[in-house]
């Protein structure tokens, strides 16, 4: 670099450009990038050849700037970097915005904002994208002759994409904290809730309290999602009249919603689950499950892989019909008294039964969901046989024969007997035969899963654009078809979208989640070549 060159002082050193280029590529690719890709691309940003770039990277590795992973062959991968100095403008322009920056207040980044509109917005006191996201259409419309109501609405809809994620996280944290504030002290407080605290029965069937016919459509759950969206199907599962019962699942916007509340979409309604078709019965699963629940206390076995939405489906049906939902996670240490309650001493020295969550759910008329039922101790499972056969619960330790509330239902969930779940215990054949079994597979239709994810992750503001979301779902379907690969469930996809919201690139987020779910005998790297076909 000649000292007579008038532009020399403005040119960044090649090592600085290289280090920031690698930093951006590592972030985009998800943790590693082949050396050759960097040496071939660096000439786009600084006037050096690929061999000189390779020599700089080798020298930088000796000084701790780059971390290299030299393969058994001649391949070398860069797995880490310590960026040198300020990021050069040429890298910022190529990749868009400083790496890790919270964003800028360049309003012209919004397609509908012209230079004159941007000036008018600033003159009106709008300094950040957060200001625009919080504005009303009436506040913006008319600031200039070209800023119409429709354009103002477009600005307000687009602005949230540029708001730093920390803003949304802080606001969400404030809402959650507010639910735990003691009204007397005004301070946050812990809560200890007895799992059997809700002792009142669920509501009455709406047809009885409102004087309707039992078969009135408005008195029952109508399957109107998934395949039945265009041709809704009444299921016979009655809607109850008390949506505020403590056991009824609440929408996230409900004042008494807990941390496990059901998410809501842009319309304010609870987001429905993606509904697969039962593989053998060839009917939508929500329709089938609702019809089984409408038959009374018939035991239902819901079989599906992790993250396929088994519990969400049951919870959604309970929300739509105002039924209580009580979920118990079973394990190999689950005893009969964990389900039905122990015998405990009273204040007057006597021994009396204390209701456990399963017994109380049956008394209240809730839907009892026993998760991973087969891993439970044989004795605990056998204690349910009379309930499964005759609809009555015999609690031997209490000396009680319990006839459940007429609205009570029982559902068990379990993973399928496949290689991925080889550690799961098989169900006793005598117990297995007592259940109506339904299979909940992963969503087979890519468009349906994309629509479901879009409603969940982009409800308040766009986190992942629809095109990228589709590529992620397409890759997830590939993982589900290869039994040697780690499997990405719908739940995993919502988690990796969270990583994207935190600032990770889509490819990095996918790689992280593949690594997170991999079993010891699986290698996430086996999926990366296929991932490159999508992202």
From TrEMBL:
<dbReference type="Pfam" id="PF07728">
    <property type="entry name" value="AAA_5"/>
</dbReference>
<dbReference type="Pfam" id="PF14520">
    <property type="entry name" value="HHH_5"/>
</dbReference>
<feature type="domain" description="ATPase dynein-related AAA">
    <location>
        <begin position="302"/>
        <end position="435"/>
    </location>
</feature>
<dbReference type="InterPro" id="IPR011704">
    <property type="entry name" value="ATPase_dyneun-rel_AAA"/>
</dbReference>
<dbReference type="InterPro" id="IPR050764">
    <property type="entry name" value="CbbQ/NirQ/NorQ/GpvN"/>
</dbReference>
<dbReference type="InterPro" id="IPR010995">
    <property type="entry name" value="DNA_repair_Rad51/TF_NusA_a-hlx"/>
</dbReference>
<protein>
    <submittedName>
        <fullName>AAA family ATPase</fullName>
    </submittedName>
</protein>
<dbReference type="InterPro" id="IPR027417">
    <property type="entry name" value="P-loop_NTPase"/>
</dbReference>
